[in-house]
Amino acid sequence: MRYAARLDDNSKLVTHLIIIISLVFLFRQITDISRDTLSTTVMLFILVPVIVIAWCLSPRYYTITATTILIRRPLLSITIHLEDVVRLRSITEEDLGSSSRLLNIGGVFGYLGTYRSSEIGKYQRWCTNREDLVLIESDNQKWLISPAGADDFVRRVNQLINIPDQP
């Protein structure tokens, strides 16, 4: 079963702003006749790799197979084996408590990378929105994803790993 990874309004806004700012710097770089382009060159060397890396790591969709959950990305998709899953549930941003960023990209093409939460500890966040959140826990790792139709996603995976529906 395939579940979409839709960007929320905040991610769309941040992504579009970063791309527009990069295009403005690029236009200034090309059209600057004074040849004093060090500042725009530096900004382009920062912004362009951030945009490319964020796009390559952002989820395109999530797939449930008979044995795995796949987080499909343009580069380096993530495979979570169902036999390793000990708990899977829908959560909200409030359930995370206060989160701090460890190594991530927040907002450009989604919320991607490693975070630490006061409630659940260290986790990998591969979300495109902050609404339909699903927490997947194994013995040694946690993933937070945001498939469209999170309740159906949780129900289907729990059926595959033989966990009864939660009330």
The Rg value, from CA coordinates, equals: 19 Å
**Tally of individual helices:** 3
* Total number of beta strands: 10
When the domains are counted, the total is 1
Q: What's the mean pLDDT score? A: 87
* Major sheet strand order: 5-9-10-8-7-6
Helix content: 25-40%
Given the helix and strand composition, which structural class is it? alpha+beta
| Main β-sheet description | 6 strands, mixed
Distance between the termini: 23 Å
Q: Would you identify the regions where 5 or more consecutive residues have pLDDT less than 50?
A: none
What spatial form do the alpha-carbon principal axes imply?
elongated
Strand content: 25-35%
Question: Could you spell the SSE succession in H and E letters?
Answer: EHHEEEEEEEEEH
Description:
With 167 residues, the protein is α+β, with helices and mostly antiparallel strands. The protein has one domain. It has 3 helices and 10 strands. The protein has helices spanning 9-31, 38-57, 150-160, and strands spanning 2-4, 61-64, 68-72, 78-81, 85-91, 99-107, 110-117, 121-127, 133-138, 142-145. It has a 6-stranded mixed sheet. A 4-stranded antiparallel sheet has the order 1-2-3-4, with helices on one face. Strand 6 (99-107) and strand 7 form a beta hairpin.
